[in-house]
């Protein structure tokens, strides 16, 4: 049985505010009539957040959603949650759907945690008695204690997340939609939430999970759907799709920029986090070559463009899929005579386990100031080479060594 | 829509309760506002319309005359003023939960209704103080109340939905309510209106309502059907339109809000 069934779903948004919004006040029959009369004028400035998407989620599965900004992940979750309706196509769900679409979870800042829980439970069709019966469970999960009777405007972001998750955990949902909420809490909260989600899955619950944290995706889901411009680009075993997705990084961005101005702007803002530095010199281009996905050798070429600086160190480092910084290699001080040129870094055997690694390129002054730092969007993927991908293995480093057994 | 709402009535009640608590939270005199507001209006109205202008009340004491209309008017005015933003203010709920959106304006009307009950109590106190007592024609009140509630629900559904798409509505409503007070015989009597203008007043459903309330509560006679029937007719048409419009635009609220 499919808990979610989406067939050729299209969701069209009007771009812009003001006039575009006022148009929405015209009910559909009239809207369609005007559309027929003035097709060119009426439909201008729309974009399809979902563009003919079809998806079936069977009961008991845990499905992850990845995709770059504007790919349609959040729109899809909102449609499944029933918050908004598709423009065309059909989407059906079975059973009780609980959604945690963001940290604020729709809580009213002036209401206390407890009052917000009553409202949220009502939204999910439970009444006050149901909440009262589960209050202990929620309190235990959220660890809010007496703060449950404080207006949530005095809560920290982590406390909002705990309250939201506590609420969801008490809803007895058949389908759970979670969008980037686990990232907010502290490590202990994350651990408990993941533990709870694991138990939820074991009991036959269905999970749809969106996160930028690829290692959480890897842990939480067994199937991964890669959304791209409102369509399913890849759908399959989590580790397979994850590898494809991580490798595609850079190329996707170029295409997005050509296609949609709004998406491109959002991406540029996102890039602000991926790139900073004092300037004077910058990495103009980077080329990461991996001769064979199964072999851990890399050739990285960095083209630089220098304005004023001549003396500098280059550096290359790696971040794993959960954002953990693994290590780096710093070059000796280079004196560069020309304004533009390139440097290379080569390695035969990186001591890293199979996985997804994001290169971070940097240029540092001799005094140690960071001049340019650039986290590449396109990852390096080391595939499993014959051996098993055993989850008992810890962390990204491949420590090697020799094992001797007594017989 | 109505069946769907009925199934979610416990949500509507929860929201009404929260809404009501929120309104008076961190206010010093709290619930007394429900009494203070009509009393203050009554005081000023008595001074201005009774003492200064000497409005013709048909022999009834002015405070009773004015309060019989001020009470239903207060329900109308506060429903509209608070109701217009009921959906936009709860954007957080609209964009995160699937529920019949109409519970938001309805729960706002619910809070105004609680105020209405309190001010009804105030009116009864005035009746007793003035020594007239409750006339038997007061049995009309439930019917009049139902008409008023349907009218208010229609208007609030309409303006709260429109306000999602154009926030001009929330800017206009306070002015609109104020202007309507001038053309509704709340502080004066329809009798004082020149004969030639009266047909126009009948187009205002609130005029028919407050005059009828006054008729049955102060003068002790049945409401004037030539006033009440147009009101019922207009209210019915308005409700049909509001019901259709809200249902047609409701699915888009989350996209636009």
Brief rundown of the structure:
With 407 residues, chain A is an alpha+beta fold. Chain A is 31% helix and 32% strand.
Topology at a glance:
The complex is a heterodimer of chains A (407) and B (257).
Chain A (H helix, E strand, L loop, with lengths): L1 E13 L4 H5 L4 H10 L1 H4 L3 E13 L3 E5 L6 H9 L6 E6 L3 E4 L12 H11 L4 H15 L14 H13 L5 E5 L7 H16 L3 E5 L3 H7 L2 E6 L2 E7 H22 L1 H14 E2 L4 E9 L8 E9 L4 E10 L4 E6 L3 E2 L4 E8 L7 E10 L5 E6 L4 E3 L25
Parallel strand pairs in A: 3-7, 3-8, 5-6, 6-7
Antiparallel strand pairs in A: 1-2, 1-4, 8-9, 10-18, 11-12, 12-16, 13-14, 13-15, 13-17, 17-18, 17-19
Chain B lengths: L1 H6 L1 H16 L8 H20 L9 H22 L2 H4 L1 H4 L8 H28 L10 H25 L2 H15 L15 H5 L2 H15 L5 H25 L3 H4 L1
Helix pairs in contact in B: 2-7, 3-4, 4-7, 4-8, 4-9, 4-11, 8-9, 8-11, 8-12, 11-12
Folded structure, characterized:
Chain A has 407 residues and is an alpha+beta fold. Among the domains of chain A are: 2-95 and 174-254, 3-Layer(aba) Sandwich (Rossmann fold); 277-382, Sandwich (Immunoglobulin-like), CATH 2.60.40. Chain A has eleven helices and 19 strands. Chain A has helices spanning 19-23, 28-37, 39-42, 73-81, 113-123, 128-142, 157-169, 187-202, 214-220, 238-259, 261-274; strands at residues 2-14, 46-58, 62-66, 88-93, 97-100, 175-179, 206-210, 223-228, 231-237, 275-276, 281-289, 298-306, 311-320, 325-330, 334-335, 340-347, 355-364, 370-375, 380-382. In chain A, strands 10, 13, 14, 15, 17, 18 and 19 form a seven-stranded antiparallel β-sheet that branches. A six-stranded mixed β-sheet of chain A has the order 5-6-7-3-8-9, with helices on both faces. A three-stranded antiparallel β-sheet of chain A has the order 2-1-4. In chain A, strand 11 and strand 12 form a beta hairpin. The longest helix of chain A has 22 residues, at 238-259. Chain A starts with a strand and ends in a 25-residue tail after the last strand. The model of chain A is unreliable at 250-271 (pLDDT under 50). The longest helix of chain B has 28 residues, at 103-130. Chain B has one domain (2-20, 30-252). Chain B is mainly α and 257 residues long. Chain B contains 13 helices and no strands. Chain B is globular and about 55 Å long. Classes of the chains: A alpha+beta (407), B mainly alpha (257). Chains A and B meet through helix 5 of A and helix 2, helix 6, helix 8, helix 12 and helix 13 of B.
């Amino acid at each position: 049985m499919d808990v979610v069934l989406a067939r050729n779903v299209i969701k069209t948004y009007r771009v812009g505010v003001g006039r575009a919004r006022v148009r929405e006040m015209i009910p559909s029959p009239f809207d369609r009539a005007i559309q027929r009369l003035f097709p060119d004028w009426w439909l201008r400035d729309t974009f399809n957040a979902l563009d003919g998407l079809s998806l079936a989620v069977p009961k008991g599965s845990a499905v992850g959603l990845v995709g770059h900004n504007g790919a349609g992940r959040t729109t899809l979750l909102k449609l499944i949650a029933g918050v908004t309706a598709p423009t065309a196509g059909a989407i059906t769900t079975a059973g009780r759907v609980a959604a945690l679409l963001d940290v604020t979870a729709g809580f009213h800042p002036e209401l206390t945690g407890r009052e917000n829980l009553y409202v949220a439970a009502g939204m999910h069709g439970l009444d006050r008695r149901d909440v009262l019966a589960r209050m202990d469970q929620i309190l235990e999960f959220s660890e809010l204690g007496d703060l449950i009777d404080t207006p949530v405007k005095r809560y920290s972001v982590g406390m909002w997340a705990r309250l939201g998750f506590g609420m969801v955990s008490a809803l007895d949902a058949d389908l759970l939609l979670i969008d980037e909420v686990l990232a907010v809490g502290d490590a202990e909260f994350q651990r408990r939430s993941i533990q709870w989600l694991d138990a939820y899955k074991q009991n036959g619950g269905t999970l749809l999970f969106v996160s930028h944290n690829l290692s959480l995706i890897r842990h939480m889901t067994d199937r991964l759907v890669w959304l791209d411009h409102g369509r399913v680009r890849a759908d399959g075993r989590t580790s397979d799709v994850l590898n494809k997705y991580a490798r595609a990084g850079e190329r996707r961005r170029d295409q997005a920029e050509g296609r949609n101005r709004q998406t491109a702007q959002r991406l540029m803002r996102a890039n602000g986090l991926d790139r900073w530095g004092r300037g004077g010199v910058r990495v103009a281009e980077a080329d990461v070559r991996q001769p064979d996905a199964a072999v851990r050798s890399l050739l990285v070429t960095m083209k630089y463009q220098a304005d004023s600086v001549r003396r500098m160190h280059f550096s290359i480092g790696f971040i794993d899929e959960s954002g953990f910084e693994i290590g780096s290699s710093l070059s000796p001080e280079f004196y560069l005579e020309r304004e533009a040129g390139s440097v290379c870094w080569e390695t035969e055997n990186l001591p890293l386990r199979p996985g997804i690694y994001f290169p971070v390129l940097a240029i540092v002054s001799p005094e140690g100031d960071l001049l340019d730092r650039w986290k590449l969007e396109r990852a390096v993927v080391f595939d499993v080479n014959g051996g098993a991908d055993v989850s008992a293995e810890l962390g990204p480093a491949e420590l090697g060594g020799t094992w001797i057994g007594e017989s | 829509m109505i069946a769907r709402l009925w199934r979610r009535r416990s949500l509507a009640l929860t929201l009404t309760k929260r809404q009501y608590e929120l309104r008076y939270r961190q206010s010093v005199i709290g619930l007394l506002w429900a009494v203070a507001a009509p009393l203050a209006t009554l005081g000023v109205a008595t001074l201005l319309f009774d003492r200064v202008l000497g409005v013709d009340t048909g022999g009834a004491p002015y405070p009773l005359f004015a309060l019989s209309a001020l009470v239903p008017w207060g329900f109308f005015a506060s429903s509209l003023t608070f109701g217009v933003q009921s959906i936009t203010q709860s954007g957080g709920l609209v964009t995160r939960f699937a529920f019949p959106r109409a519970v938001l304006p309805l729960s706002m009307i619910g809070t105004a209704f609680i105020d209405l009950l309190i001010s009804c109590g105030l009116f009864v106190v005035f009746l007793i103080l003035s020594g007239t007592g409750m006339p038997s024609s007061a049995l009309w009140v439930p019917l009049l109340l139902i008409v008023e509630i349907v009218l208010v629900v229609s208007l609030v559904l309409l303006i709260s939905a429109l306000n999602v798409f154009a926030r001009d509505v929330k800017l206009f409503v306070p002015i609109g309510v104020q202007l309507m007070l001038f053309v509704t015989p709340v502080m004066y009597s329809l009798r004082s209106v020149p004969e030639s203008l009266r047909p126009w007043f009948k187009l205002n459903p609130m005029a028919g309502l407050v005059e009828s309330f006054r008729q049955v509560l102060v003068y002790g006679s049945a409401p004037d059907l030539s006033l009440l029937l147009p009101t019922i007719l207009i209210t019915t048409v308005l409700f049909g339109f509001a019901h259709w419009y809200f249902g047609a635009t409701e699915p888009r609220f989350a996209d636009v809000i």
